[in-house]
């Protein structure tokens, strides 16, 4: 009887050896991951906007927004980062459109009141990645885009 139990145990062990491992799907970045990636591109002393403030500022349907935040370097520059997480890729594209409108408004305003900021704003990035939409205006825009799109 002992031999039979031992043989059954060995068979179970060997049966597992040939099994294919489960595919692990790499987890996507979270809202907090994007915050951690992007906020270092601003000076340390930045002010923030919460989800409600961002959705109102952009006129985005709050029912489609899972999370949102805005980071503004200071009142003397136009450097800022906005991250909007939506409930679908379609809504992320809608948020991207609103972010483009916002960027155009910033450019028009800077042309009249802060011409020294025009180049930085003009180099700003608006885009989507999955269900996220982003606006990035910072000094090192190429590095920020590279960090975001990795």
Provide tags for this entry.
150 residues; alpha+beta; 47% helix
Structure description:
With 150 residues, the protein is of the alpha+beta class. It has one domain (29-138). It is 47% helix and 19% strand. The protein has six helices and five strands; from the N terminus they run H-H-E-H-E-E-H-H-E-E-H. Strands 1-2-3-5-4 form a five-stranded antiparallel β-sheet, sandwiched between helices. A hairpin with a 7-residue loop joins strand 2 and strand 3 (80-86). The longest helix has 25 residues, at 89-113. The relative contact order is 0.14.
Strand order of the largest sheet: 1-2-3-5-4
Q: What is the overall number of helices?
A: 6
Strand content: 15-25%
The largest sheet is: 5 strands, antiparallel
- What is the CA-CA span between the terminal residues? 58 Å
Total beta strands: 5
Helix content class: 40-55%
Mean pLDDT: 84
Residue runs with pLDDT of under 50 for 5 or more positions: 1-27
Can you describe this structure in just a few lines?
A hairpin with a 2-residue loop joins strand 4 (125-129) and strand 5 (132-137). Helix content is 47%, strand content 19%.
């Amino acid at each position: 009887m002992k031999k039979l139990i031992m043989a059954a145990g060995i068979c179970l062990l060997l049966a597992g050896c040939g099994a294919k491992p489960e595919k692990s799907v790499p987890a996507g970045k979270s809202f907090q991951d994007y915050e951690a990636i992007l906020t270092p591109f601003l000076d340390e002393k930045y002010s923030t906007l919460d989800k409600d403030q961002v959705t109102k500022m952009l006129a985005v349907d709050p029912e489609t927004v899972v999370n949102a935040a805005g980071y503004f370097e200071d009142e003397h520059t136009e450097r800022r980062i906005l991250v909007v997480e939506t409930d679908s890729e379609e809504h992320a594209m809608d948020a991207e459109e609103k972010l483009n409108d916002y960027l155009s408004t910033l450019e028009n305003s800077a042309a009249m009141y802060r011409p020294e900021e025009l180049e930085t704003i003009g180099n700003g990035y608006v885009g989507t990645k999955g269900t996220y939409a982003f606006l990035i205006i910072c000094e090192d825009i190429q590095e920020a885009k590279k960090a975001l799109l990795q």
